[in-house]
Amino acid sequence: MSTLDIKRENGKIFCPLTNSWHIETPEEKVRQEYIKILVEDYGYSLDQMAQEIKVNNSQRGQGKARADIVVWKSKQDKIESKAAFIVVECKAENVRIREEDYYQGYNYASWAGASFFVTTNEKETKYFNVDKEYLPKELVEVVAIPTAEEALNDKKVKDILSKTKTFTRDDFTKVLRTCHNIIRNNDKLSPEAAFDEISKILFMKIKYEREQRGAKVFTKNEFVEKEKWFEKEIRPSLKGTPKDLPYMQFLFYNTKEEFKDDQLFEENEIIKIRQNSFEQILEKLETYNLSDTQDDVKGIAFEQFLGTTFRGELGQYFTPRTIVDFMTHILDPKENETVCDPTCGSGGFLIKAFEYMREQIEDDIKTAKAKLRTEIEGDNYENLSEKEQLAINERIEVMQSTLNNELDTQLEGSRMYNLSRNCIYGTDANPRMARTSKMNMIMHGDGHGGVHHHDGLLNVNGIFEERFDVILTNPPFGARIDKSQKITEADKFTDETLIAKYKEKYGEAYENALKQVNDNIGKSLLSLYDVGAMSGLTEVLFMERCLRLLKKGGRMGMVLPEGVLNTSNLQKIREYFEGKAKIILICSIPQDVFIAAGATVKPSLVFFKRFTKEEELQYLGAKTRAEKEIRKKYIGQIKALQEKIATEKAKKLKVKALIVVAEKELRDLEKAIIEEAKPLTKEYFDYEIPIAMVEDAGITSTGAVSAGNQLPTLQDEYKEYRIAKKLWNESNSVISYTINPEGRLFRISDGKEVELKW
């Protein structure tokens, strides 16, 4: 097959299909890279392709529609303006392809009369068949597109059109379970160790398929062929180096290097299964291209696999997705807010928060593109010459490419960079869970850098008091921490390089945060918490921990055992929290929801908002007023005891026993006044506590999805309620974009202008 070199110079890229130089925008880069793939991997010639071709369905308003790449079956078909064969839509590498993009591409392909359409952003490539008669409710993904040779064989084309790719999360979950069983049966590893090996293979596969630009899947045959070549041509030159390894271990070594900064694997870790098992697993996974699979599909499948594999084995109960979605929507985290889960497990809450805020940014960028496009086109665009339209389209491309940079998680200063680096934090005390959370987040997009293996009750890195706007968590239930559990030297964070980095980032607050551990070595963990003197229950300690992590006015949602704060033995603890935060919603859910995850306790979803400074003063005022009022009832007794003590102390011959008794009586009376004032304080500091009871939370006791999920309706109702009641300060930060007369693009946020460059 032919080869195609991509030419670049002075910020431009040569486009052979137009025989001209174009500005090398991220979209143009992807387009030319895919043209290269069509030539080199599929055998299509340049003279049977074209780019930026107008397509329309004769409907008003569709005159501007242009297909990125159009491929005909032959050069002659193109000359004769026959129906196209393949239509390709390209997006910038950092732009996540959304459902509407697929339908847009489908429309273009349908209008062009094509049989296939492709969407690609280099990292993610999908192929679809096209029914030219109607727009389907669901797009049908196929496993491949034909080569140039296959395109001329109607039978081959029909066969490829029929090979639909039914990649569902359930399918992928089943495959992962099968792979898990292969390792357990062949290599006799424990469930946990077997999972570790699958994790390694998944990341080897992700790395390989990313490097192949979505064009190739890491298959067993691919591995076998590459192994022969490696052992003959490459390995002899690696003698005496750390990379002098069998091909399977060599690939894993490179994978460790790829994800080194993510601390996913230990430096000396190796593949611990035999090669036969490795090849069997590759064979099971070869249907799935992990570089182009929808994040949501592979991520949720991964979670499902985790939930069934580790149910109860690690004391981990995975929060069902319906609950995670609901709790996130209730707290409604906004861009630039910080989110934390100090018991993050597999990362479900952090992933959802990341996705939730990412969608806000993506929608905002989409709106900005449409607004600026209208401005650039002006009112007379349709009446301009094609040359003038092309010049305007080039300006629009540059604008869109520049805005797309806001979605690049690797570009410092972008909105997505800020989200993935500065807004998502979590810890888990179990090293496997912490690593799993990082893996899970990578599979869903990003935002994994703030996740740490650490005791969630102790400060680490960016996780310390009064740092967060939102807490979402499902803490461990029923376990106890006793007084013998001490803070040890092992709890100290000792990486001096990272300490210096975090000091620079967080300033004095970080240095003070380290003292929580460093100044308390040898002390009981319970001594760090006010409630530690009242209870050692993990859920109670984490309630205080989460409140401390919140900024004043911050909000949190927790999965808690139902009635945890209503039991008589936890009355003092309830009172403690009532003096720190408002309960803004209690939602009772069916016990069935967590049965599938292995839990037996009936849960509630409890939402708090930490007092603002104003609310702290209001509560203190109500408490002072209540105690003052109750004190009036006992003023006579108080004075009598005070006089008795004073008289006795004034005597030359004091009776100490009488003084001790009177002082105790006075102390007991003061305690009684405080206790009697508590109901009155609540009356004076009165606020509404919404309570909801849900009979169907979208999941059955078997883990299956139920049809009557009531949570979405409740979350919509609650949104109206909390906005009307002004339960918390809604984010007023609006980001806008403007183009100055010189054509430079600026982001405007909080009155500050930042120039964006592509």
Q: What does this 3D model show about the protein?
A:
The protein is an alpha/beta fold. Among the domains are: 8-162, Alpha-Beta Complex (tt1808, chain A); 169-293. Helix content is 46%, strand content 13%. The protein is built from 25 helices and 20 strands. α23 (635-650) packs antiparallel against α24 (656-684). The longest helix is centred in the middle third of the chain and has 30 residues, at 348-377. The chain starts with 7 loop residues before the first strand and ends with a strand. 36% of the residues are buried.
Please outline what is shown here:
This protein is α/β, with parallel strands linked by helices. The chain is built from 25 helices and 20 strands.
CATH class of the domain at 8-162: Alpha Beta
The CATH topology of the domain at 8-162 corresponds to: tt1808, chain A
Query: What's the total count of β strands?
Result: 20
Average pLDDT level: 84
**Do you know the CATH architecture of the domain at 8-162?**
Alpha-Beta Complex
Task: Tell me the Rg in angstroms.
Answer: 32 Å
Query: What is the spatial order of strands in the main beta sheet?
Result: 12-11-10-13-14-16-15-17
Poorly predicted segments: 58-63
* Largest β-sheet summary: 8 strands, mixed
Broad structural category: alpha/beta
Quote the distance from N terminus to C terminus. Answer: 34 Å
Helix content: 40-55%
Percent of sequence in beta strands: 5-15%
Keywords:
758 residues; tt1808, chain A; eight-stranded mixed beta sheet; six-stranded mixed beta sheet
